[in-house]
Design brief:
Elements lengths: L14 H13 L10 H12 L7 E7 L4 E7 L2 E8 L3 H12 L3 H9 L5 H11 L1 H17 L4 E7 L8 H9 L3 E3 L10 H5 L2 H4 L4 H11 L1
Parallel strand pairs: 1-4, 4-5
Antiparallel strand pairs: 1-2, 2-3
Length: about 220
Amino acid sequence: GSVSKIKVILVAAKKDLIEHTIKLLEDSGLVPAVIDIDSFAVANAFGANFDFEKDNAYILADIGSRLTNINIISRDISYLTRDIEIAGDAITRYLSDKLNMPFDEAEKLKCEPDNKEAIIREATERALEGLFNEIRLSLDYYESHFEKPIEAIFLSGGTSLVKDIDKIFKDSLGIETKIWSPIKSVKVSKALLGKGLAEFASQFAVSIGLALRASI
């Protein structure tokens, strides 16, 4: 008879790292309700806000300061997830070296480019070249094992707020790229929205995904 197969993802984390994180929360007067993996939390937030089309697959790239987490998903299945140690700080370091300015000043310029959009774009393109190469490797692996088309890349994380980063991703990888909001279908108080949450919501994909998991 035929043999059925299932695909599994094995996740491991050091016990002392988990215990350290829990202690930090408890020392802050918080009681942890759920422990999850960043990529799964982002996928959870994405699934709560967007409907998957047919059997298309999507790349979720959550770009922080030190790490970029990528997750290739289709419906509720994760086909590949990995962390890449190239993210927003690489852009800041490029600016700092190029313009001979302190790191904190370069960070401020990255967030508020004023009339220096051209150098910000150059820094983003150059600093993230390694990230694009790593994503291409992941795509090659995915395409060699599965037959679902990649429909789009969805960006989140603090570095997704860098000007034109979605266009740079599209130009570099040749895939439609969008910045998405994890609060698109989540009820949020008007007070929070009035403080600019909607504008910066993309950087909260992990936390919102965790909160949604804990509320299930």
